[in-house]
Amino acid sequence: MRRPTAALAATAIVLAAPMVGAPPAPAAVPPAGACRDPEPARPVVADQPWAQQLLDVRGAWRHSTGTGVVVAVVDSGVDGDHPQLAGKVLRGRDFFFAGNLPGAFDCVSHGTAVGSVIAAAPVDGVGFHGVAPGATILPVRITDRELADSGDPTPIDPAALARGIRYATDHRAKVINLSLSGYGDFPVVRDAVAYARSRDVLLVAAAGNRQGTRASYPAAYDGVLGVGAVDIAGARASGSQAGDHVDLVAPGAGVLAAARVGGHAYWDGTSIATPFVAGTAALVRSAHPDLSAEQVARRLIATASPARGGRKSGEYGAGLVDPYRAVTETPPAQGPAPMAAVALPPPDHQAARDAAWWHRTGHLAKAGLGGAVAAILVAAALAWSVLRGRRRRWAPARAASPPTVPVGENLPEEIFLFPPPPVEAPRP
User: Which superkingdom, per the lineage (predicted)?
Assistant: First the structure.
């Protein structure tokens, strides 16, 4: 199983998570010359993945499925022929090769996996599905694979990334998924992010798969939601980068997603965690179209479920993204309102004197009543005794002797509420 590579050139922007392979199946045929070495097809996996069980997005579907929202996947392309993505993927654009190629194909399955986590439709016999199956995917292809022949992450041309972000913005994307990261702060990418934000587009980016807390771009740019990864136990996934740029976390270890040519594969890394947040953003933008991108981002953060690091954690951000809460709850605009100060009324001295008088009177009345009752009882007892004595002519009465109880005899077992104590050994 191939894992994300930690080594990374300081100026490179790379895809943040590799694919885990499975037994090969018949290969898809991409456009001629588009793929140097296309990944083989993978088998269909029927089991329901842990990430879908954890987030339980079906509850949110009663309120929103993401209908009407275009989510751009700026990645390696998206296989538009996958059964769970059929009819959901636009033509898009390829910025990796010159010409006018579409973005609706994939050589390595990375973009297909990301797009499927966002919008894959539920189908019979398959447990996997996307977060927002009503959303539409705009594929923007900026690379042809996530690993070079050496096994190192493939650097992405910052200019191609910037053109992809601008293209997505100009083609009605309301959410842009950027499952890539790097240490380089490129002005061309920074300007493209600012361009998208100025047009009310929400950008969601991977926090990166490296140790340490160094800023990772584009997640570290203002207004971009940075996403870390957690495993099935809720702990930060191995390699998920920490830092101020981590706003939320999502499943990112052993996550099942679609693969090119109709199958599925397992993935690790913040790349596969990012589309869970992007898909949730699509649910919110569909259910609450009046909210701006900034308001949607604040809503996702405010409704996140608590994570191990607590709120504002450098490892977990605000917590685990929660699609149901994000769609259904309305966070307060400025946090909880402070409690009003308690104003005590001025003391009423006359009322206090009256209460004290009634208190004393009540005690005296009770004492008097008690004394009268006791006197009556004593008189009644005395009268009964005199009458009985006269009848017996004052002869003493003989009381019956009580029955003899053998010493040391135990009570019957059934009266014990708990098992009876053990029998003591006879003393010498």
Answer: Bacteria
